[in-house]
TrEMBL record:
Residue ranges annotated for the ABC transporter domain, each copy included: 9-241
Statement: the UniProt record of this protein carries the keyword Transcription: no
Protein name: ABC transporter ATP-binding protein
Organism: Noviherbaspirillum saxi
Any one GO CC term of the record: ATP-binding cassette (ABC) transporter complex
Gene3D superfamilies in alphabetical order: 2.40.50.100, P-loop containing nucleotide triphosphate hydrolases
Domain of life: Bacteria
Molecular function as annotated in GO: ABC-type transporter activity; ATP binding; ATP hydrolysis activity
Keywords: ATP-binding, Cell membrane, Membrane, Nucleotide-binding, Transport
Keyword Glycosyltransferase: no
Length: 365
């Protein structure tokens, strides 16, 4: 199949409510999805991501703001008149039709001539690796294959934009990983602007060029997966994208190069000063893999924040061991890379946790 024209999708101050304005589900959503981008909407259940996706498809109507596709405001244009393809969680294949007829359906409906239908359906099935299954029915295919049929059926009509609503959630873990790679390479081949809804941060991070993290109908942060992981804007994003340690507290002293952070349940900690630091309530966040663990009496290194604790819980995960370490009244998570022959720290061992100071983020609360 040929590369498709790359189109931008833009939401400008979009607001959507149900129940005559009582339930506000989308609040002032402003974002621009660049032409050809693979964009993920990531958020917990009820955050509004499906509502936003369905709004782009035309199934939901917003009351405020504008929706621009290729620079044109398509607010009010019905779904069938938008050239937008959507793959649903359930795939929604026709059970009584062959794979070929399922894929051809949208073209036949649009009264495309027979020769073109043949050529396009053949190319779409080829693209998803299902040419040899054209005569089967959906129930004769595996979940992953059905998913590919759903994709082929959507892209065959050459939509301007591809919308994917949790398309991998019905598949087992291994197949999900395989399919997300396939999805990503298919998207690259076609160059189609793609919006992918998921509540799975790993899925969003591994596929998306950029993503929007949503919570309570608000875009909490927008950026590349690495930017969101490394520089979360607030505690919600820090927790939702990856695993983190969040310590709440208050900065009550700002000295030359350091600040005093009164961490709840831990006590006073001296931290390096940073442009984001202000006196008052704050949280600090650091990732478990940026913490190194040492035995209680080892030498301190000034580039680290040192916390004394005792191992409370150990989880061996193969590549690394995840330790939950009691520090004061808090539990700190520390991931230590595992190599064969290593002896893990025992439960209740006294340890010192060294947090790389460059990896600590200060977050407003
Ligand atoms: N027709 C409706 N009437 C009233 N409230 C609705 C309606 N549809 C959705 N909602 C509410 O809007 C909010 C957002 O729903 P939405 O389906 O967009 O969330 P989501 O982030 O996609 O969650 P999930 O991952 O569970 O699908 C929810 O609180 C939901 O209860």
């Amino acid at each position: 199949m040929k590369q498709l024209k790359k189109i931008a999708v833009e939401c400008k101050n979009i607001g959507l409510s149900y129940d005559g304005g009582k339930t506000e589900v989308l609040k002032d959503i402003t974002l621009r999805i660049e032409p050809g981008e693979f964009f993920a909407l990531l958020g917990p259940s009820g955050s509004g991501k499906s509502t936003l996706l369905r709004l782009i498809a035309g199934f939901n109507q917003h009351q405020r703001g504008q929706l621009l596709v290729d620079g044109k405001d398509i607010t009010g244009v019905p779904p069938y008149a938008r050239n937008i393809g959507m793959v649903f969680q359930s795939y929604a294949l026709w059970p009584h039709m062959t794979i070929w007829d399922n894929v051809a359906f949208g073209l036949v409906e649009r009264r495309v001539d027979k020769a073109t239908v043949k050529q396009k359906v053949g190319a779409a099935l080829e693209l998803v690796g299902l040419a040899q299954y054209a005569n089967r029915r959906p129930n004769q295919l595996s979940g992953g294959q059905q998913q590919r049929v759903a994709l082929a059926r959507t892209i065959v009509i050459e939509p301007q934009v591809l919308l994917l609503d949790e398309p991998l959630s019905n598949l087992d873990k291994k197949l999900r990983v395989q399919m997300r790679e396939e999805l990503r390479s298919l998207q690259r081949t076609l160059g189609i602007t793609t919006v992918f809804v998921t509540h799975d941060q790993e899925e969003a991070m591994t596929t998306a060029d950029r993503m929007a993290v949503m919570d309570k109908g608000i875009v909490q942060q927008l950026g590349t997966p690495a930017a969101l992981f490394d520089y979360p804007a607030n505690p919600f994003v820090a927790n939702f994208v990856g695993t983190t340690n969040l310590l709440a507290g208050e900065i009550d002293q700002i000295n030359g190069d350091t600040v005093r952070f009164r961490a709840q349940g831990i006590g006073d900690i001296t931290l390096p000063k940073h442009p984001d630091v202000r006196a008052g309530k704050m949280a600090i966040s650091f990732r478990p893999h940026t913490v190194k663990m040492q035995v209680g009496d080892s030498v301190r290194d000034g580039a680290y924040l040192w916390l004394n604790g005792a191992v409370e819980h150990t989880e061996f995960l193969g590549e690394f061991t995840r330790y939950r370490v009691r520090v004061g009244d808090s539990l700190v998570t520390a991931d230590q890379a595992h190599f064969s022959g290593m002896t893990p720290f025992a439960e209740s061992a006294a340890v010192r946790l060294g947090v790389d100071a460059t990896q600590i983020r200060y977050l407003a609360v």
